Recover the amino acids of this structure.
């Protein structure tokens, strides 16, 4: 009586056989060939069919699991430890995070966009998936140009919430883009670039609120202004 296990195998069983180790597979194939060549061929064609559908299924899953790209837009004039806190938390949620420095001219601008980008670039060298660039015009247009899935923004206080909600709703209404908010750590709840510029202009100690490279640039900027 020929002993052909695979000729009767259902698809689930055959899929299991595919992954149950080469020793088992070859012993089954030899078994089948020896006793019934047709059954062995039948097994092979079923095996091939099941392997194909197995990989097709997984390809669909792989295609669905695409990476998420977020942009973190802002003035960053200059970047503070509060911004960095949001960046460090953000990269845990997204596969790619682009820090986007707005080039639009704003009042009381201290650093040129290129200088702001340089300071940020120095800070993210050890952060895989994080990059920095500058952009002009509307954030939503830039987001669609860069094929971003999400806009990331930071929240410090309830005062931020009102403005940020308005902005997020407008962006969703005009461009269908979602905004994700990250709350800062308590120690940076009162840190803003405006405050940093003001305190720096008066020579105050900012070492806990900004990174060292920013501190140096600020000292350099205000020293030059005084002379
Ligand atoms: P903008 O002019 O677009 O507000 P900012 O550089 O001031 O640019 O801020 C960029 C983003 O970072 C905003 O979402 C802002 O709320 C957030 N942010 C600024 N400072 C902090 C901070 N200390 N902690 C958390 N988020 C912050």
């Amino acid at each position: 009586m020929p002993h052909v296990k695979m000729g009767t195998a259902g698809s689930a069983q055959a899929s299991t056989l595919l992954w149950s180790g080469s020793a088992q597979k070859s012993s089954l194939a030899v078994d089948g060939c020896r006793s019934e060549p047709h059954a062995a061929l039948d097994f092979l064609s079923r095996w091939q069919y099941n392997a194909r559908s197995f990989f097709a299924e997984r390809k669909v899953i792989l295609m669905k699991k695409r990476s998420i790209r977020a942009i973190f837009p802002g003035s960053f004039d200059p970047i503070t430890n509060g911004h960095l806190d949001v960046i460090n938390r953000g990269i845990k949620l997204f596969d790619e995070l682009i820090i986007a420095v707005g080039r639009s001219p704003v009042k009381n601008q201290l650093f040129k966009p290129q200088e702001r980008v340089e300071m940020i670039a120095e800070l993210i060298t050890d952060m895989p998936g994080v990059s920095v660039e500058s952009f002009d015009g509307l954030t939503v247009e830039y987001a669609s140009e860069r094929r971003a899935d999400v806009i990331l923004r930071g929240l410090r206080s309830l005062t931020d919430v009102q403005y940020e909600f308005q902005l997020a709703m407008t962006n969703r209404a005009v461009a269908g883009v979602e905004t994700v908010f990250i709350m800062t750590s308590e120690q940076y709840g009162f840190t803003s670039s405006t405050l940093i510029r003001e305190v720096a202009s008066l020579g105050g100690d900012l070492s806990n609120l900004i990174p060292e490279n920013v501190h140096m640039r600020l000292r350099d900027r205000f020293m030059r202004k005084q002379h």
